[in-house]
Amino acid sequence: MKSSLHLRCKCKRILGHVITAEGIKPDPKKVEAISKTPRPENVQLLRSFLGTCGFLMKFIPNCANLSEPLRKLTRKGQVWEWTNEAESSFQAMKEVLVGEPCLAYFKLGAPTVVISDSSPLGLGNKSVAYVSRSLTPTERRYSQIECEALGCVCYGFCSTCECAHPQQRSHSGSHYYSRPESLSDFCCGCGHF
């Protein structure tokens, strides 16, 4: 029987990740599989590629915007047409992972700052992982500042939320500048950078 206890090792592969003293990295075997993936020829193969990348999306900054041309091809009723934009998106997603990204470890006692920025297509923030998702059709109608606040919601611990939206500066005293009530349970403070 193989022991699961490993002492004094410099790195360890666990569940598709490599744990090192520097931080957490994607497993090179998974990255190699993604880098060798040929251009998808149909929706099913594209969904498979996106699913594999989804497992490692915490290593991909701005993943929602980066993958938008590919996700557009998977929508119901969309005609399959592989464009230059789709090819650029496909190659960029592969290149980010091949670049050996490394994430820092989260420190429970340390102050936590969530920095959020959004676009009309997606939102994201960076803490100890890149977090990104596409917006629902309803969320795409939110104002810029509401999308950035949506990106700041972190459950279970107190954090400071910072957004880049200039409206925070010009609406001093309004509901845009103060912390929204819906974020009160999650944020110790709100500000802008």
Automatic annotation (TrEMBL):
Cited InterPro entries: DNA/RNA_pol_sf, Retrovirus_Pol_polyprotein, Rev_trsase/Diguanyl_cyclase, RT_RNaseH_2
Domain Reverse transcriptase/retrotransposon-derived protein RNase H-like: 82-153
Highest rank taxon of the organism: Eukaryota
Record-given protein name: Reverse transcriptase/retrotransposon-derived protein RNase H-like domain-containing protein
PANTHER family: INTEGRASE CATALYTIC DOMAIN-CONTAINING PROTEIN, PROTEIN CBG26694
